[in-house]
Q: What sequence folds into this?
């Protein structure tokens, strides 16, 4: 063999294998890995089809936004708006909004359809995981066992049973698809594959901000595991840069909220929350300390410490600490958990388990390189041991799923899991059908943490219901320090209107309308408030103020006949004839009738 040919073979990526000249015998589908990857999660998660909403964001996205979701044309609008509110939202996730619009066309506000698709997405994600593991040369039996563990593990039940967990399911599908397409690209370069991975990565960016980590993880896998030279990856790098740039421009059009966390604050927040990495690891190895709404301060570190000790010992005994997949697996786990560490405490203080969906794969990669999956094991023994472990995991998951059955069960479970959580106690109260019990739970939540987001809002609702308007205003204004959503401004405006503080009522009402311009009733109320202010100013001979407020009415409600008429009349009465004539002409242009009184004055 020539020296040049030997050198060429050395440069060839390790994953490109010679075609197998032996004829492969096909096996029945029921004996294939994919059969079990479809069957087990389908049987486990089948009952979620009969579950209701939990009222943790799912009702907000499906029921409260029904009027938005039913208009399929809104698909074109979601790319320039935030996730929760159109503007000033830190989250930009249009793919989730598109998904919800499309599903609404099929299921309306019936939860069964959304749960069914969550289960199907999880099965697709699991099958793609198997394909990916095999693509990076992990043996079929090992890849199948790891994928099965992923498909039924209790810590991932929240991602599948909770409808907004859909975001992580979609991100996983797009991420694994990107990796698989890139691997295929280097096996047989094609412009179609290059474009395909660009599309899946770009969609991943539009699914969740965490996707910015995908290029780094992909590079590590392709270069260090599959031995592809950096020079050959330039087209891929360029496509990633283009995708990130387009995503950044689109996100900027949504006018995202600026979170004023400085780099130093992010570092301090990350250090303070570092134990969350151990908490999550403990839930992977010992999945019996799960929580519906996990509070960082309430989760014990004992199981996490035991888990990290076992993992380190396993890697050392296996002598696999230098293997690329071990290092990449740990980086995979840590990098995808990074947002959990630096997210502002006032924005989200919970360490939800659905965030472990992607990082979980990193730990599976590490385990694949240990003696747990050594070739010294007899295949039969490995399968029997794995079957026993899977049986335990399935049993725990099957029982755990029941806490997502409906909103009352969910929040009762959340309070049991996290008794010191003001957030859980507050929502337990909100979901209670008993008015007295609801008020009691809300007050208990306030006692636990008076600065918990939304607790002051609900305290204000309690006070307003009892006609203690001054007290309601106090709580609503206190909530403004943490929250910025339309109903807060609308409620505060309503209270101020009752207290006859019309200027302040108008200001807060206009703020609410700016956040949610679709509230037609609020627009009408604002026009009425401005009209009353105009009448009050006119009665006190404060004509400039009357002109100002009448002008505001015409801005809010341009075709308000009375406001346009009165404004023209005030102009005449204050000797501003030119303004009055312009007003009359404007009324004619927009199709409003001009009264005989105005026509007489105009002569």
A:
């Amino acid at each position: 063999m020539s020296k040049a040919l030997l050198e060429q073979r050395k440069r060839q990526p390790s994953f490109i294998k010679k075609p197998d000249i032996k004829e492969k015998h096909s096996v029945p589908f029921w004996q294939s890995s994919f059969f079990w990857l479809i069957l087990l999660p389908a049987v486990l998660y089948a009952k979620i089809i009969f579950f209701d909403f939990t009222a943790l964001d799912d009702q907000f996205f499906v029921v409260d936004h029904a009027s938005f979701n039913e208009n399929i044309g809104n698909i074109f609008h979601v790319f320039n708006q935030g996730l929760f509110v159109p503007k000033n939202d830190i989250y930009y996730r249009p793919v989730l909004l598109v998904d919800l619009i499309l599903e609404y066309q099929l299921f309306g506000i019936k939860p069964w359809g959304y749960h069914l698709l969550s289960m199907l997405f999880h099965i697709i994600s699991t099958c793609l995981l198997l394909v990916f593991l095999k693509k990076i040369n992990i043996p079929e039996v090992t890849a199948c066992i790891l994928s099965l563990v992923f498909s039924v593990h209790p810590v991932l039940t929240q991602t599948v049973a909770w409808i907004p967990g859909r975001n992580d399911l979609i991100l996983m599908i797009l991420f694994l698809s990107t990796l698989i397409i890139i691997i295929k690209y280097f096996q047989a370069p094609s412009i179609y594959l290059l474009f395909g991975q660009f599309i899946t990565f770009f969609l991943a960016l539009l699914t969740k901000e965490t996707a910015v980590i995908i290029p780094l993880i992909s590079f590590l896998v392709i270069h260090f595991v599959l031995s592809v030279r950096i020079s050959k990856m330039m087209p891929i790098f360029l496509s990633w840069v283009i995708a990130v740039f387009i995503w950044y421009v689109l996100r900027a059009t949504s006018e995202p909220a600026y979170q004023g966390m400085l780099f130093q604050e992010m570092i301090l927040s990350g250090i303070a929350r570092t134990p969350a990495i151990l908490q999550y690891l403990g839930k992977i190895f010992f999945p019996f300390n799960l929580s519906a709404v996990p509070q960082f301060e309430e989760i014990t570190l004992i199981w996490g410490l035991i888990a990290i000790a076992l993992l380190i010992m396993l890697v050392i005994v296996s002598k696999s600490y230098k293997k690329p997949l071990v290092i990449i697996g740990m980086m995979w786990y840590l990098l995808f958990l990074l947002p959990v560490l630096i997210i502002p405490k006032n924005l989200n203080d919970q360490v939800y388990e659905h965030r472990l969906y992607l990082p979980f794969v990193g730990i599976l990669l590490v385990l694949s390189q240990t003696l747990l999956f050594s070739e010294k094991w007899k295949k039969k023994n490995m399968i029997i041991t794995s079957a026993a472990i899977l049986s335990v995991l399935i049993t725990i998951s099957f029982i755990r799923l029941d806490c997502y059955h409906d909103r009352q069960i969910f929040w009762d479970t959340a309070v049991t899991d996290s008794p010191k959580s003001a957030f859980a106690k507050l929502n337990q109260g909100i979901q209670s059908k008993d008015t007295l019990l609801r008020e009691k739970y809300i007050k208990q939540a306030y006692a636990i943490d008076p600065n918990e987001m939304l607790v002051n809002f609900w305290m204000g609702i309690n006070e307003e219901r009892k006609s203690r308007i001054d007290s309601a205003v106090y709580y609503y204004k206190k909530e403004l320090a943490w929250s910025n959503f339309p109903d807060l401004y609308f409620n505060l405006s309503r209270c101020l209107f009752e207290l006859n503080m019309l200027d302040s009522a108008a200001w807060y009402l206009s703020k609410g309308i700016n956040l949610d311009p679709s509230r037609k009733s609020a627009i009408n109320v604002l026009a009425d408030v401005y009209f009353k202010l105009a009448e009050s100013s006119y009665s006190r001979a404060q004509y400039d103020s009357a002109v100002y407020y009448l002008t505001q009415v015409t801005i809010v409600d341009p075709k308000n006949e009375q406001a346009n008429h009165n404004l023209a009349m005030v102009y005449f009465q204050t000797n501003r004839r030119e303004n009055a004539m312009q007003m009359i002409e404007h009324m004619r242009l927009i199709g409003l009738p001009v009264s005989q009184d105005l026509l007489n004055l105009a002569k």
